[in-house]
Amino acid sequence: NAGVMQNPRHLVRRRGQEARLRCSPMKGHSHVYWYRQLPEEGLKFMVYLQKENIIDESGMPKERFSAEFPKEGPSILRIQQVVRGDSAAYFCASSPPVRGQNEKLFFGSGTQLSVL
Amino acid sequence: TQLLEQSPQFLSIQEGENLTVYCNSSSVFSSLQWYRQEPGEGPVLLVTVVTGGEVKKLKRLTFQFGDARKDSSLHITAAQPGDTGLYLCAGVLGAGSYQLTFGKGTKLSVIP
Question: Does the distance separating the beta carbons of B88 and A43 come in below 8 Å?
Answer without folding.
Answer: yes
